[in-house]
Amino acid sequence: MTPGPGGSVRATAADGRAGERVRSRRRELGVTQVALAGEVGVSRQTIITLETGDYAPSVYLALRVARALRTTVEDLWGEGSGDTDPADVPAGNPPG
Fold this sequence. Notes:
The protein is mainly alpha-helical and 96 residues long. The chain is built from 5 helices and 2 strands, in the order ββααααα. The chain has helices at 16-28, 33-40, 44-52, 59-68, 73-77; strands spanning 2-3, 9-10. A hairpin with a 5-residue loop joins β1 and β2 (9-10). The longest helix is centred in the first third of the chain and has 13 residues, at 16-28.
């Protein structure tokens, strides 16, 4: 993570899978980016960067987003979110 303008944290590598989960859950609930942004107290641009995986939210923001989307931080950004490729796990070390 590298600090950006205003102290925001920009992901060093995009986490598109987490972003896809945020977008998918938001759409499942029929919530617009503007509505989600308003509920969690950020700009629509912040929601866009979360959904593209270009922004790593603070723990506080991740909690607010998860609550607004009626899910958990782990479901959106966690290792157990179904995004672990078995090929990435060393032998003898099962995920979770």
